Amino acid sequence: MAYNLLKGKRGLIFGALNEDSIAWKVAVKAKEEGASIVLTNTPVALRMGKTNELGELLGAKVIPADATSIEDLENLLKESMEFFGGKIDFILHSIGMSPNVRKGHHYSDLDYDLLLKTLDISAVSFHKILQTSRKLDAIENWGSVLALSYIAAQRTFFGYNDMADAKSMLESIARSFGYIYGRERNVRINTISQSPTMTTAGSGIKGFENLLDFGDRMSPLGNASADECADYCIVMFSDLTKKVTMQNLFHDGGFSSMGMSLRAMDQYNKGLEHGSESHNDHIYD
Ligand SMILES: NC(=O)c1ccc[n+]([C@@H]2O[C@H](COP(=O)([O-])OP(=O)(O)OC[C@H]3O[C@@H](n4cnc5c(N)ncnc54)[C@H](O)[C@@H]3O)[C@@H](O)[C@H]2O)c1
Fold first, then answer.
1. Considering all CA atoms of the chain, what is the largest pairwise distance in Å, rounded to the nearest integer?
2. Per-domain residue ranges for the chain?
3. Which of 13, 14, 18, 21 to mutate for ligand 1's pocket (most ligand atoms within 8 Å of CB)?
4. Is the separation of the CB atoms in 144 and 237 below 8 Å?
């Protein structure tokens, strides 16, 4: 059901690769809620993925940009404003990738050039988008900017690797830039910390299915789906949340506030003799 929450608003959405992408669901719902949309992704993702298909479906403009390139971002923001005939009301940063995870490097044996790439793609790109937007004065007063995060920013999760460091940085950028952009333009900047979700990026994480299952069983409301995440993003882009800024907002069915559930306690009581903290020579991954 649509509520016209984004009627007349203009949104720029990064990261819709295919139907599973969280950004894909956000774009579809934003359109349903009355927004006009620009979609963007890397040139490779545009070739390999389905962003262009989504663009046709929504009547959205698709503009290629690598979010780590200032030149690409400048072009993207200028072209978006031309397309909209004005400034942008909301931006979704839905970007994450770790070359260390892709190449199977253990967290205690990181390739540091690849670590810098992880941080650049998954966190610094958020700063680059904000800084470039500010320089071009591309975001409308009372605009809303969101990035998607994960609880591994605060707590240690097996297999999340250097993405945990990237997410910590991402959340910090939302606070630091939220202060500057809020004071100057009333632009709010937040991160949504989403449950594990079966997407292309998600399934790259080691032991992802177990993470998903654990989250689902541990959370009183169960994991939040990509569709539900999109609903939350829409509310955050709407005028109903104008004074929410510099926050990391957990959207996880209650997972982040849980310690031990009855179900986990029962499982624990059955004994964990077969469990081990050591796997394939990696201790405490
Ligand atoms: N899937 C999960 O379990 C989960 C949980 C919490 C948070 N998140 C976060 O949600 C966001 C979206 O991920 P998703 O799960 O929808 O997966 P996804 O794979 O569908 O989306 C990731 C996107 O990042 C894009 N991207 C990669 N490098 C880029 C670059 N240099 N410039 C621009 N775009 C680039 C990819 O092309 C892709 O569209 C990510 O930040 C991810 O970390 C995901």
1. 64
2. 10-283
3. 21
4. yes
DSSP H or E segment with residue 140: strand 139-149
Contacts of 131 (CB under 8 A, 6+ apart): 177
The finding on whether 152 has its CB within 6 A of some atom of ligand 1 is no
* Closest CA to ligand 1's atom 38: 15
Residue 204: how many other CB atoms lie within 10 Å: 16
Q: How far is the CA of 22 from the centre of ligand 1 (A)?
A: 8
C-alpha 109/C-alpha 277 separation (Å) is 18
Rounded to the nearest angstrom, the gap between the alpha carbon of residue 125 and the centroid of all alpha carbons in its chain is 12
**Best residue among 40, 68, 94 to mutate for probing ligand 1, ranked by most atoms within 8 Å of CB:** 94
Q: For position 271, what pLDDT does the model report?
A: 79
- Exposed (0-12), middle (13-18) or buried (19+): which is 270, by Cβ within 10 Å? exposed
* Single-letter amino acid code for the residue at 225: S
Our answer on whether the CB atom of 69 is closer than 6 Å to any ligand 1 atom is no
With bands split at pLDDT 50, 70 and 90, how would you rate the model's confidence at 118? Answer: very high
Residue 285 has pLDDT above 80, yes or no: no
pLDDT at residue 194 tops 50: yes
Cβ neighbours of residue 8 closer than 8 Å, sequence gap 6 or more: 34, 35
State in Å: Cα 230 to ligand 1 middle.
14
For residue 245 and ligand 1, the question of a CB distance below 6 A is answered with: no
Topology classification of domain 10-283: Rossmann fold (3.40.50)
Q: Which of 68, 97, 126, 211 to mutate to test the pocket of ligand 1 (most atoms within 8 A of CB)?
A: 97
Task: Map residue 144 onto helix, strand or coil.
Answer: strand
